[in-house]
Amino acid sequence: MHYWIVLVITLILDRWSKHLIMARYELGEGLPLLGEWLSILRVHNEGAAFSILQGRTTLFFVVGALVLAACVYYNQRCEPSRLEQFALGLVCGGAVGNLIDRALYGGVVDFISVGWWPVFNVADSAIVVGALLIAVFALRDMAGENRRQEEATKQE
């Protein structure tokens, strides 16, 4: 259940933030918050991260659907810990938020501009944080498995 709560909260925050930005700013408009280091800048991104693969909407729908399916499957079948459910909820909530954008607008609404980094949104942030957490958990589990194998080898 934890997974679904995080997914819904992430999706609500993403949709709400994009609604506010679209209501207040035209494309290319923004607001400096901390000089050039942090600002709001509304852009339309038809690509993926760093605006790569522009115009490949079908590809992004397929990839997004596969990510969602994998997360739902893992959550249903593998009994993830609460932290793993949190991470999966972030990834899926972000993926759904960006898929909704692609369905409605043909691209993603991005608006968080940090220095030289490409403009991103709440969904992108959730996906990155969730994916990093999943990677950390996977590395932790691999390290634990290696230790168990070493212990078993020593006992033989």
Explained architecture:
By secondary structure, this protein is of the alpha+beta class. The chain is 65% helix and 13% strand. It contains four helices and three strands, in the order αββααβα. Strands 1-2-3 form a three-stranded antiparallel β-sheet. It is elongated. The relative contact order is 0.17. The model has no long low-confidence stretch (mean pLDDT 86).
What layout of secondary structure does this protein have?
Elements lengths: L1 H23 L5 E5 L3 E8 L11 H21 L4 H24 L2 E7 L7 H34 L1
Antiparallel strand pairs: 1-2, 2-3
Sum up the structure in keywords.
156 residues; alpha+beta; three-stranded antiparallel sheet; 4 helices; 3 strands; 65% helix; 13% strand
Estimate percent helicity: 55-70%
Number of helices: 4
Give, in spatial order, the strands making up the sheet with the most strands: 1-2-3
User: Which ranges are low-confidence, i.e. pLDDT below 50, for 5 or more consecutive residues?
Assistant: none
pLDDT averaged over residues: 86
- The overall strand count is 3
What's the short story on this structure?
This protein is of the alpha+beta class and 156 residues long. The chain is built from 4 helices and 3 strands, in the order αββααβα.
